[in-house]
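Sample entry (305 residues):
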Amino acid sequence: ARPAIHLEGAELDVVEAVVVLNSLIRDSWQKACESAFILGREVYQFHAIVRKVNRRKKTQDRILVVSNQWIYNMEMFGEEGPQEEFKWSLPIGSLLRVAAGKDDSKLGEFPATIHFDLVVAKQLLAQNAYKDRKLGTKGSSVNDKHQLLFISPYARDRCTMALVALYYSQAKKRLAFTRGNEATGIRRSQLGPEVIKKEGTLEKYTRGIVGNMVGKHPRFVQIKSTGYIAWGKEKGKIKFDEAIVGVRDEGAALEQFKLTDEEKAQFFCVLTSGKSLYFLCPSVQEKKDWVACINTIIEKAAYSK
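Predicted structure, serialized as tokens:
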């Protein structure tokens, strides 16, 4: 069970005590974070205790700390307080999309998925004010998508809405935000009987979990009318499928794959409920056909809501 403070007394006294406690907690966190790793003109905004879902689908306890300029992912710490090292940090301006997932009250899971554009992140890091910063201080691989489980819907909504507001204050434009089923992909039942809308063999690119290793393998890929993408080694050996969230012409990891200009024109990224998938098509026209097919599925799902 989570540690808790139980307050008893008159309603106004309890409300006043809660306000005072929240203020003291915020002040202590602001002092600790701004002493340890929040630099210069940055100002602490809030923090959240979360469970992060990693690429192996395992959950890890983490602390998400947000300043007016950066988002930090930290390991849990004890009485020593926050340290200078953190798992990764990314600028607010590199946010691409925020999605609040479908709640599961029984399991106490209130999900949100945060998408970043790592190309934009590196552009921001090239600016004079950030030249001493880097994308995280542990490990050598930073993901463009992070799935988080919050302890309550209030904590999740507070975080997602704050990120939307902070992004607008910097970029002067709205951050893409979805809630509910849109956030975790299209439900199979939304679009009627399952039909294969497009299939074929594509070169699938992967990033190593450790280091900068890049792999690529031919995979048989299917786009389904129910809003799912499936893939496997061969047509008769489809082993994986994920709910489609979106599609991009290039993808945030494009720079890491070190593609030629010709390959870049044939490359696209599918954002799913579980990961980002990267594919190289045999031609530019094939890429256009795949992207158009996926966009049609997404638009049909949006219309059916």
